[in-house]
From TrEMBL:
Lineage: Eukaryota, Viridiplantae, Streptophyta, Embryophyta, Tracheophyta
Protein name as catalogued: Protein EXORDIUM-like 2
Source species, domain of life: Eukaryota
InterPro entries, A to Z: EXORDIUM-like
Family according to the record: Belongs to the EXORDIUM family.
Location(s), subcellular: Secreted, Extracellular space, Apoplast
PANTHER family: PROTEIN EXORDIUM-LIKE 2 (PTHR31279:SF3), PROTEIN EXORDIUM-LIKE 5 (PTHR31279)
Chief subcellular location: secreted
Signal peptide: 1-26
Species, as recorded: Nelumbo nucifera
Keyword field: Apoplast, Secreted, Signal
GO cellular component terms, semicolon-separated: apoplast
Length: 307
């Protein structure tokens, strides 16, 4: 069973590591923020995920009902134009500009694997086995791993991945999958920034997480990154820049920006909840607020932020 893995490197880790190792290169990058050449993600003529797709969720390990609701509400916010702008749905609409057409994601089944059926230390290849537990036709199967689950390469090189595989029925059952882990206790400085201080670079105070859970709010950022990559580059021949086995995609190409004026180590200008002091840039269903990363806009060849 063939599978394709897309390694998502947390932007702040890459940019601030570059600042630490190669100051002259980092200076060039910061100057590029002033005189930036148009960013172009090349289209490689492959299929994109357009139309109606079912999102099936596999919860691996222990997630509280509140944690599950934060992530589920994000999915339900993608195609719901109910909240006032800036909204999750307005962010998601940017994906419609990739070979014009909407990706309507409909929440499907949810599978609870609270007994850690494969143990608490998993290889990336086992994500396919977990994802395959859900449906295959017109599906995006999402695996969320709890904070006590150790994943191969988690923290060292990735905060999430996405890829594709086939079901037992052959080509027609080819499905996309993705994985995102909760970094709360393992590597919040890499995978939950800016809700935790980064491990490199300036140690600025972390932002207050909009849903009161730095680990899960960090998961939202990484979920948004791999989900946008899933629909715009599902089979390794969609939109991306660089090598296909380590591509820069719709969100990962945008360098850790969340609001206007962002630069390495600074997420940009954001909205702040007057009651909680939490930072956010998108509203969702059920009164949710989220912090979503910038996404490359094919119409402008630039990274678009909501605020």
């Amino acid at each position: 069973m063939a599978s394709i893995y897309h390694f998502i490197f947390l932007t702040v880790f890459l940019l601030l590591s570059n600042l630490f190792v190669n100051p002259s290169s980092a200076t060039s990058r910061m100057l590029a923020l002033v005189q930036q050449q148009p960013l172009v993600l090349k289209y490689h003529n492959g299929a994109l995920l357009k139309g109606n797709y079912t999102v099936n969720i596999i919860w691996y390990g222990n997630f509280s009902p509140v944690q599950r609701s934060i992530l589920v509400d994000f999915f339900q916010s993608l195609n719901a134009p109910i909240p006032p702008a800036p909204s999750v749905s307005s962010w998601w609409k940017i994906t419609e500009r990739y070979k014009v057409g909407s990706s309507n994601l409909i929440l499907g089944k949810q599978i609870l694997d609270e007994n850690y059926s494969l143990g608490k230390s998993l290889k990336i290849s086992q994500m396919v086995s977990l994802a395959a537990k859900a449906g295959h036709v017109n599906a995006i199967n999402v695996v969320f791993t709890a904070k006590d689950v150790v994943i191969e390469g988690f923290c060292m090189s990735r905060c999430g991945t996405h890829g594709s595989s086939r079901g037992t029925a052959g080509d027609k059952s080819k499905f996309a999958y993705l994985w995102v882990g909760n970094s709360e206790t393992q590597c919040p400085g890499q995978c939950a920034w800016p809700f935790h201080q980064p491990i490199y670079g300036p140690q600025t105070p972390p932002l207050v997480a909009p849903n009161g859970d730095a680990g899960v709010d960090g998961m939202i950022i990484n979920l948004a990154t791999v989900l946008a990559g899933t629909v715009t580059n599902p089979f390794d021949n969609g939109y991306f820049q660089g090598p296909p086995n380590a591509p820069l995609e719709a969100v990962s190409a945008c360098g850790g920006a969340f609001g206007k004026g962002a630069y390495p180590g600074y997420p940009g200008e954001l909205l702040v909840d007057k009651t909680t002091g939490a930072s956010y840039n998108a509203r969702g269903v059920n009164g949710r607020k989220y912090l979503l990363p910038a996404m490359w806009d094919p119409k402008t060849s630039a990274c678009a932020t909501l605020v």
